[in-house]
């Protein structure tokens, strides 16, 4: 029982931190579930379900702050939604799934440790064709693995200089939401069922996400939490890849 309390506290912190930068937190939830030994077939729908609530509340806060760019979001989303649905239909071998997830967890580590120190104030007009390709690729991976894709999209937007930090957070948040809906819908067609524990996870994650989104849409420093979460993600990635 003590381990479950630790899991709930960790879940709250993960949701808080991810929402503060406009993310749903699926990679963090998957990392926690990997550390606590949750079965692979439960991890995927659970992470997407948590994403729905945390990413939506995060988007609302950043949208209210005036950071959302609809023209950039639309081509990304329209390409990603159908591919996220198809990705959700595919069942991946548990061992292969863990290896892919372990590799993907390295992306948010880089996002937390390095991107926060870089300046992305100057932006340029996005390329439509490239936006469609990026949206489709991330969408498929999102449905396949059980993430919303924001943790991949966000650094891409920043590196291409299509959005600044706050705009990237707003776009990533709603991108995560629509992809999570599509991916979860694809899984539900295969008969995925939710447990009582999943609903408890939602309450805890929603509370963390609500606070995180509120403070993240303001000028809020969370450097210490970023380092802690990066360590958790690194532990999970090591376990998934090598244990």
Describe the fold and architecture.
The chain has 243 residues and is mostly helical. The protein has one domain (2-242). 77% of the residues lie in helices and 0% in strands. It has eleven helices and no strands. The protein has helices spanning 2-20, 26-35, 40-64, 70-89, 94-104, 106-113, 128-145, 150-159, 165-188, 196-216, 223-242. It starts with a helix and ends with a helix.
Present the secondary structure layout.
Layout lengths: L1 H19 L5 H10 L4 H25 L5 H20 L4 H11 L1 H8 L14 H18 L4 H10 L5 H24 L7 H21 L6 H20 L1
Helix pairs in contact: 1-10, 2-3, 2-11, 3-9, 3-10, 4-7, 4-9, 5-11, 6-11, 7-9, 8-9
* Global mean pLDDT: 82
Estimate what percentage of residues fall within beta strands.
under 5%
Stretches with pLDDT under 50, minimum 5 residues? none
In whole angstroms, the N-to-C terminal distance is: 25 Å
* Alpha-beta classification: mainly alpha
């Amino acid at each position: 029982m003590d381990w479950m309390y630790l899991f709930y506290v960790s879940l709250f912190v993960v949701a808080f931190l991810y929402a503060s930068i406009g993310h749903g937190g699926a990679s963090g939830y998957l990392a926690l579930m990997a550390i606590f030994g949750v079965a692979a077939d439960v991890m995927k729908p659970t992470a997407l379900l948590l994403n729905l609530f945390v990413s939506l509340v995060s988007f609302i806060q950043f949208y209210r702050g005036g950071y959302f760019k609809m023209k950039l979001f639309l081509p990304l989303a329209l390409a990603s939604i159908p591919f996220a649905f198809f990705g959700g239909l595919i069942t991946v071998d548990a061992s292969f799934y863990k290896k892919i997830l372990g590799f993907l967890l390295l992306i948010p580590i880089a996002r937390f440790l390095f991107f926060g120190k870089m300046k992305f104030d100057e932006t340029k007009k996005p390329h439509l064709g490239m936006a469609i390709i990026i949206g489709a690729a991330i969408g498929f991976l999102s449905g396949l693995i059980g993430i919303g894709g924001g943790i991949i999209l966000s650094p891409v937007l920043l590196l291409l200089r299509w959005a600044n930090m706050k705009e990237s957070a707003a776009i990533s948040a709603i991108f995560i939401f629509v992809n999570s809906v599509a991916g979860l819908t694809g899984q539900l067609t295969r008969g995925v069922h939710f447990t009582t524990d999943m609903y408890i996870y939602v309450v805890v994650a929603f509370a963390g996400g609500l606070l995180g989104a509120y403070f993240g849409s303001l000028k809020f420093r969370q450097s210490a939490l970023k380092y802690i979460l990066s360590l958790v993600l690194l532990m999970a990635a090591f376990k998934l890849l090598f244990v």
